[in-house]
Amino acid sequence: MCTNETGWLSLQLQRVRGVDVSIGQHDSQFHWLSQLRGRRQHAHLQAEDPDCPLECDCPSRYPTAMYCHNRNLQHVPYVPSHIKYVYLQRNQIRGIPEGVFDNATNLVWLVLFHNRLDSDKIGKNVFSELKHLERLLLDYNDLTHVPPNLPKSITDLRLSHNKISKIPSSSLEGMLNLTTLHLQVNSIEDVGGVFKGLKSLTLLDMRKNKLRKIPDNLPEKLQQLYLEFNGIESVPAGFLTTYPKLRFVRLAHNKLTDKGLPPNVFNISTLLELDLSFNKLEKIPAVSRNLENLYLHANKIKEFSLSSFCSTIDMENFSRLKMLRLDANGISAKDIPAEAAYCLRRVAFIDV
């Protein structure tokens, strides 16, 4: 598929997230289907794919895409073999039986967010033959576990806003191409070493779960780690030295205290953004001079320690911070020493 077409499809995915065709306003839930049959009699739709199911649209201009979103569908429709991009979001689909995609092994994107998918009603091998699948969007459903036998080709897996509580170690085994994994807003308490083999993973989002600690055995290539709104109380010693490619770490809305932060645990030169807001910290932790964004608001900090940013101050040794938030603590502007103007010379404004 050409770059322009892929870009257009990406745009459409964003646009159709907000589409509402007000199906429920009709006397019959299938009234729209009768309208669709009538529409296809018009000249401008005669060029549509004759294999396209009546429940969906298959624009002739983009012959590998099939749009079935917002149709009040309760089942996955027939997918022609040449289709690569299927949009089934915002329907009422509860299950996906075995064999549904046997004719559609060329699928690259499968979009199923905002349905009513039940883990017990999804076939164990329903996705296994989709050897070219790259994006599988299953967020905002009723899943209680990760679907089994997912294709190893997937690069983007979205399972947020479900009811997942556990992730067995075999769930993501062999998924060497996975780069982004969204698991936010579930009920996950522990993940063990399930992420260890994800050698390409660069983004892991586990916001709003029930984690008590930072997951173990994270992939070495991980760059973005989002763990806000959990119950994490501490950060392991040497955490960032173990994962030197981490650039963005967000630990806001947890239960972190000074006792739970080993000395210099965040003083790593590769880190660019660190969010520790809405915790129980009483001191500003030492950070690297290369850090650009630091969020410490809504803690219990009562002292501004310049040494947390600069051990020495001169023309060449200064912090690269651009954003520093310290509001909703016990610090006021008068607590900031004059030397901060040299150490924090790139910060436009310190929010206290």
Salient structural properties:
leucine-rich repeat; little secondary structure; Leucine-rich repeat, LRR (right-handed beta-alpha superhelix); 13 strands; 13-stranded parallel β-sheet; disordered N terminus; LRR_dom_sf; 4 helices; 352 residues
List the helices and strands and how they pair.
Elements: H1 3-16, H2 31-39, E1 65-67, E2 85-87, E3 109-111, E4 135-137, E5 156-158, E6 180-182, E7 203-205, E8 224-226, H3 239-242, E9 248-250, E10 273-275, E11 293-295, E12 323-325, H4 340-343, E13 350-351
Parallel strand pairs: 1-2, 2-3, 3-4, 4-5, 5-6, 6-7, 7-8, 8-9, 9-10, 10-11, 11-12, 12-13
CATH C-level name of the domain at 1-163 = Alpha Beta
For the secondary structure, the number of strands is: 13
H-E order = HHEEEEEEEEHEEEEHE
Q: Average the pLDDT over all residues and give the rounded result.
A: 89
**Termini separation:** 51 Å
The CATH topology of the domain at 1-163 is: Leucine-rich repeat, LRR (right-handed beta-alpha superhelix)
Biggest sheet statistics: 13 strands, parallel
Kindly report the name of the CATH homologous superfamily of the domain at 1-163: Ribonuclease Inhibitor
Structural class: little secondary structure
Shape: elongated
**Order of adjacent strands in the largest pleated sheet:** 1-2-3-4-5-6-7-8-9-10-11-12-13
Radius of gyration: 25 Å
Helix content: under 10%
- Low-confidence stretches are 1-5, 15-47
Keywords: Disulfide bond, Extracellular matrix, Glycoprotein, Leucine-rich repeat, Proteoglycan, Repeat, Secreted, Signal
Protein name: Fibromodulin
Family: Belongs to the small leucine-rich proteoglycan (SLRP) family. SLRP class II subfamily.
Domain LRRNT: 51-85
